[in-house]
Amino acid sequence: PSSKTWSGRFNEPVAELVKQYTASVGFDYRLAEYDIQGSLAHARMLGAQGIISQEDVAKIEQGLGEIMREIHDGQFTWLLDLEDVHLNIEKRLTDKIGDAGKRLHTGRSRNDQVATDIRLWLRAMVDDVVARIRKLQASLVDLAEQHADTVMPGFTHLQVAQPVTFGHHLLAYFEMLQRDAERLLDARKRINRLPLGAAALAGTSYPIDRERVARDLGFEAVCENSLDAVSDRDFVIEFTAAAALIMTHLSRLSEELILWSSPRFAFVDIADRFCTGSSIMPQKKNPDVPELVRGKTGRVNGHLVALLTLMKSQPLAYNKDNQEDKEPLFDTVDTLLVTLEIYADMLRGIKVNKDAMRLAAAEGFATATDLADYLVKKGMPFRDAHEVVALAVRHAVEQGCDLSDLSLPQLQQFSPQIAEDVYQVLTLEGSLASRNHRGGTAPAQVREALKRAKALLA
Ligand code: ARG
C-alpha cells in the first residue's frame, strides 16, 4: 500500500507517471518557510481555542522549528512520493513528533493552506520588488542629475521632434516606475488577506478564530468567503500584470539604450561588463543586457496570459488547475528581481556622449516649433505660422543647412515679421529654457522634478 496521506480509499497505487505529473514539490518547496509560518499560526490558534492541547502545540512548534532548520541547512529530503511541500513537511513532522503532528491539519485543508502560503510568499516578494524599484529609481535620479542641462533630440515617430534634456527623458522612466511601485503596493492590500479557515471550501465545524491567525501572520483581514478564499488567484494575476508593466517599461528603455548605443546614434556607451562580443566579428560590442530585458518581457507577458487562461474556466471552488499558478508566478518574480537589480547597476555604467546628442538635436530642425511660436507671439495665427515655418524648413532642406544657418534676409523672405531676435529662439538652449512650467523640459524644471523625485525616495 502506498504511504500517501490520502490513499485510504484507493485500490491501487498511483501510476508512476501520474505521480510525477501531479506532484508539485519540485517547485513549491520554495514556499516551505511560509508553509511553516502558516502552520505555526494555525497550531497556536487550535491550542488557544482548546481544539488541540497545549502540549501538542509545543511539540508542533518544536518539530516545525527543527524542520525549518533542516530546510535552511539543505538537510531536508523532498520526496516526490509526498506530492507537494505541504505533505512533505507534515509527514516529516509526524515522523518526528507522532500524533501531535497528525493533529496539525485539524480544521484545515491544503486548499486554504496553499492559498495562505502563496499570499505570505508573494507579500514578501512585493516588498523585495518595490525595494529594487526604489534602487533603480535612485540610479535614474543620479544620472538625470548629471544631465539636467544635457540637450538631446526628443523624438516622436522616432523622428527628431523638439529638443529635450537627457535628464528630462530619464525622469520619464522615474515616473513610470513610480506608478509601478504604487500599483504593487495597491495589489499588496488584496494579497494581504487570510484564506485559512476556509478549509477545503465550506469552512470548518471547529470553533476556530480566524482573526487571531490573521493577526499572527500579519494579514490585514480575513478572506470573507470560504469558496472565494480557496479558489481565486486574482491576486497572483494582479501582481503578474503589474510585473508585466514593469518589464514593459524597462523594455522600452532597453530599446532606447540599444538604439542609442548603436554607432549610428552613439548617444551612450554601455559599460563593457554589461555587453558581450561576437565569436566571429572582432569589432563587436553587443548590448546583450538590454536585449535580454526586451526579450524577457515577452516571457513575463506570457505568464500573465497563462495565469488568466488558467483561471478563466474554473468552476468554484478549488481545482487542481491552480497548482499551475506557481511556476509562472515564481518565474515572473525571479525574472523581475534580477532584471531590476542588473538595470540599476547598468544605468550607473552608462557614459553619455553629449556632443553626439547635441549634434543630432541641431540637425533635425528641432526648433521649428519654436520659430512658429515666435511668429505667433508677433501676432500671426498659429496655423499660418506653421505654414511659414514649413516653407522655411523645406528651403533649408534644399540648402542642406539648419534653420539657424539661414541669414536674416533669407528668413525674412518667409515672413517680414522675423527680426534679429529670432536667433535666440532658434538655439537649442533657448528652446529648452522656454518650456518652463511644471512637467516641462527646461533645465530649471528638471531640477525641480529632481527635488520631488528625491523627496519621494527619501
Ligand atoms: N499542490 C497543491 C496546489 O498547489 C496544493 C493543494 C492541493 N489540494 C488538493 N486538494 N489537491 O494547489
TrEMBL record:
<dbReference type="InterPro" id="IPR000362">
    <property type="entry name" value="Fumarate_lyase_fam"/>
</dbReference>
<protein>
    <recommendedName>
        <fullName>Argininosuccinate lyase</fullName>
        <ecNumber>4.3.2.1</ecNumber>
    </recommendedName>
</protein>
<dbReference type="InterPro" id="IPR020557">
    <property type="entry name" value="Fumarate_lyase_CS"/>
</dbReference>
<keyword id="KW-0963">Cytoplasm</keyword>
<dbReference type="Pfam" id="PF14698">
    <property type="entry name" value="ASL_C2"/>
</dbReference>
<keyword id="KW-0456">Lyase</keyword>
<dbReference type="Pfam" id="PF00206">
    <property type="entry name" value="Lyase_1"/>
</dbReference>
<keyword id="KW-0055">Arginine biosynthesis</keyword>
<feature type="domain" description="Argininosuccinate lyase C-terminal">
    <location>
        <begin position="365"/>
        <end position="432"/>
    </location>
</feature>
<feature type="domain" description="Fumarate lyase N-terminal">
    <location>
        <begin position="8"/>
        <end position="302"/>
    </location>
</feature>
<dbReference type="GO" id="GO:0004056">
    <property type="term" value="F:argininosuccinate lyase activity"/>
</dbReference>
<dbReference type="InterPro" id="IPR008948">
    <property type="entry name" value="L-Aspartase-like"/>
</dbReference>
<dbReference type="InterPro" id="IPR009049">
    <property type="entry name" value="Argininosuccinate_lyase"/>
</dbReference>
<keyword id="KW-0028">Amino-acid biosynthesis</keyword>
<comment type="pathway">
    <text>Amino-acid biosynthesis; L-arginine biosynthesis; L-arginine from L-ornithine and carbamoyl phosphate: step 3/3.</text>
</comment>
<dbReference type="InterPro" id="IPR022761">
    <property type="entry name" value="Fumarate_lyase_N"/>
</dbReference>
<comment type="similarity">
    <text>Belongs to the lyase 1 family. Argininosuccinate lyase subfamily.</text>
</comment>
<dbReference type="InterPro" id="IPR029419">
    <property type="entry name" value="Arg_succ_lyase_C"/>
</dbReference>
<dbReference type="InterPro" id="IPR024083">
    <property type="entry name" value="Fumarase/histidase_N"/>
</dbReference>
